[in-house]
Specification:
By secondary structure, the chain is mainly alpha-helical. It contains 29 helices and six strands. About 65% of the residues lie in helices and about 5% in strands. The longest helix has 26 residues.
Length: about 625
Amino acid sequence: MASEFPDGQLHVNLRGYDAEDVVDPADALCGFLEALGVPHARIPASIEARIGLYRSRLANRRILVVLDNARDSAQVRPLLPGTGGCVVVVTSRDRLSDLIATQGARPLSLDVLTPDESMSLLAGRIGAGRLAAEPAAVADITGTTGRLPLALSIVAARVALHPGFPLDTFAAELRSDEARLDAFSDGHVRAAFSWSYLALSQPAARLFRLLGLHPGPDMTADAAAALDGRPEATVTPLLRELTRLHLLTEHEPGRYAFHDLLRVYAAELVESSEGADERRAARQRLFDHYLHSAYPAAVLLQPQWLTIEPVPPLPSNSSPTMKDHDSALAWFAAEHRVLLRLVRQAAAETGFEAYAWQLAWALTTFFAPRGLWQDQLAAQQAALAAAERSGDLAGQAIANRLLSRAETRLGDLDSAENRLRRALELHGQLGDPTGQAQTLHNHAELCYLRGDPAAGLALGHEALRLYRLAGNRAGAARTLNAIGWLYAATGDYARAIESCTEALAEQRASDDRNGQAATLDSLGFAYHRLGEHDRAVDCFEAAIPLFRDSADRYHEAETLLRLGDTRESMSDPARAAEAWRSAARIFDELGDPAAGDARQRLARLRPAPPLESA
């Protein structure tokens, strides 16, 4: 049907029956928008804004949208295009009656394959001549597999590997008691799975079982090697063996995934066949692999951020080495869904709590600059619960502070303040002046949001004292900028400029580009208030590309708002409107209500309609 959809096709496996994690419609929309050419940094944070952008991108296109393996109508509805020439195909084990009633969907119920269709599938894989020679064995095979396509495909793969074996051999194996393990309600599927599993080499069978410990949604060869406890070069041929038998799929180059039924089967096998000690050791190798991949990637993404002391790597650890910022960013983009699942998995395992909060810390370096605050909230909630259960004070302090950042962005200022007070108390107990300083810095910003810059200044000066005491120049520079902003908010512009100028010099010396952007924005704010509009514009226009380079969309939009305000004060409404429109577009993409502020500014530039004469 491709020729009928000249603008292309979109496909997502919604994993509606994945035991670990059904795909959130917001995540599916993110993938669709990227496929439609929207840069990740421009994808909105809220699902409502993503739906709007998605539908606008499809409005004038003819695209085939395939929503595969849906759990229910609620998962599908946000992914439906609006008006236009697109066609949607939804597959599900559920009838999705709501879509039929409310969206006008046309139901098409699929039974198992007919005997002729089963024959056709097998003939395409192993040859019609071979089938014709043993019709009784073929009938047994199709009957034993229940004529289910997945089961038949797995059987066909096994048969094709042994062209000299009579088909009756395979039919007899499928009928054997050993192949009929009891767990799935559908014995036909289990028979096909277990039959192919029993055909694996011993090392491949062990790997298959251990892969049942991986949370998904997919994995790389190095992650599989970590689970197996052997070098990647040894494990790669085993992955090929699993893919040849259709027990694993290489759905992207180098990335392997289970069908959800096969994931459940592997998880059952590892619980029944591997001892508790071996399962625990494999999980530790997995957590260790991801933590010691994520940690150096996080440092490359945010070199000025406070770091942590990660759990020492296992002697067998062979995590990949990150080369630069771009490779770290690409790694997080590919793995962040896996990492979020791992945080929850580690948090639920006694003895692995440190891996949970440390993986969550690393994820913050990817989530925060992209405004993925719901993901940040979920990760830090799991991290905090794990650190509290194990009594890890450092983990509790860091998780409380990072959780407060998500709550602040999501508007829960009371809870955010409580988190910061708890983090400050814990860092104090630990004798950690740098952690105290960062927490006080965050609290000073919260005071500004609450409309109390004077209280923020007191906290900021104490943070600066502690940073200097600890010898942390990067932290001191960022706090000098925060102090400058707070001075400007109180009307003390001279001290604001002095503090920010000192901060900027330090940030330029250390090449803290995001920090420079924030400080230039603060200087622009102070110069605007002083009426030095040309200097304000220079600062804002220097800050915007620095924010853009570091994918800090939220602060780029805030600076554009202020640039527009300054342009308006300079009697330049056209360029003011240009800046405000850019800010509104970014806020819309982030799903941030500040888009309304930009539109209010634009509205006041429109001339009032002329009065009609009486």
